[in-house]
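dumping this here before i forget
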Amino acid sequence: MYELRHLRALDAIAVEVTFARAAQRLGYTQSTLSQQVAALERSVGGAVFDRPGGPRPVRLTPLGRVVLASAREVLGVVGEAEESVSRFHAGDGRVDIGTFQAVTNVLLPPLVQRLRAAHPGCDIRLVEDEAAVPDLGDLDVLFFDRPGPDDVDSTLLLEDEHVLVAPPDAFPGGPVALDLLHEAPMVALPSICDQREVEDHLAGRGIAPHVVFRTADNQAVTSMVRAGLGCAVMPVLSLGWPERPRGVALHPLAPALPPRRVYALTRGSLSPLAAEVIALATRIAQEVRDAGGCAG
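structure:
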């Protein structure tokens, strides 16, 4: 069966019309090129060039024209594949990222900006889902607030302190005792993931806030607190960064709740672009920590 080098030889000779110029174009000796054409002709069962001899140009035979048409289709597909592979190694391919609200609002904007600046041709696909269980599926990177299962690589990005979000003047300045939250009206996120862990931790201390409203929108939580519907316990980054919501007071909790941990989940070998996403996320998370945006 003929090989790609045979098809490239056929194409080069058809373009250059002499073996000598085609050999020079491909970086071969003329004898090597002749051997490749001979191998191609054995494969296809006949001559692909008429060779008039002397300085006169070679001509494609009818069989040669048929083979060349197919060869150029094959070489076109191969060229596209080689270009895609080159773009992949250069970091200009596609990356699919799963995210949730706090990461979307705080970590992803600078990450996407820097990634696109470094790789203008990259294709970034984002999917946001407030799921109870991490599911990488076909994603390259999934940001989640818990580590993944055993077959997933989990990179801890940051630890996010929980604070009490309260109407102004609802409590004196400074820390608020957890016991004061018992039966207090509470605005809360859906009872999954970090919110579930917060409520379980409070329940373990015999503290049961009265949840008056649940919403999956972080901004809606703070809006309802601002309206006086109740208080909320939220991780700091869910409140936005560097801007904080206006019209509410933020209090440390005493004793402090366990922090929410934000992970980047991946599985197996990473593309260069996905590896850069992890590196950028780690760097940006460190910048947020250094700026006092969350716990260490």
